[in-house]
Amino acid sequence: MKIFLDTASIQELRQAISTGFVEGVTTNPSLLARQKSDKTVEGLLLEICKLQSGPVSLEVDEDREESMLAQARWFRQLASNIVIKVPLTPEGLNVCRILRSEGTEVNVTLCFSCAQGFLAAKAGATFVSPFIGRLEDSGGCGIELLRDLRSMMDHYGFSTQILAASIRNPRHVAEALQAGADVATMPFSVLFQLYAHPLTQQGLMLFRQDSQTKAPFVSS
To answer: Is 214 a catalytic residue?
Structure first.
């Protein structure tokens, strides 16, 4: 399973890339709006695409098909690794189909059911993004959705990749792994929580204590 970082922060992206685990980036209008920078939105996007050579998802914020398509084509010319992110609506899936026919990769976002994922795959989506955390907020089961999508994609031979999104904790990452997601996109904080386990810290403390109480190794 690939790891993408869900961010528009250059600082977070630089630090995350240094781990060697990050293989792509997802953004959205909310993440971009939170960034306090002297750069224009275009400048920020260009820097993100230069830092991360893997797929970088940029989301359209229009709701009419023609406007979505125009914005998507403007995004596409910014960098070769840009993936256009569209909502799972009739207009969004029409735009997905058109962009895919033009050779542009598309991430269909805001997926909350297997039926929606099926439509995204039929539209030729490169990625479909089920929102695990947000589904759980409304009483649904994120891992069940991931499993259903995996079964459906495999059964019908779709090439659309399952990109687990709205990941809020390491448990969500583990569930995405178990369910067979192709990608998990996560915030900076969750990425670094993956390293943590109380028994690891306890073990390190014990090793340090033992090394201080025993005689050092002496070479002959």
So the answer is: no
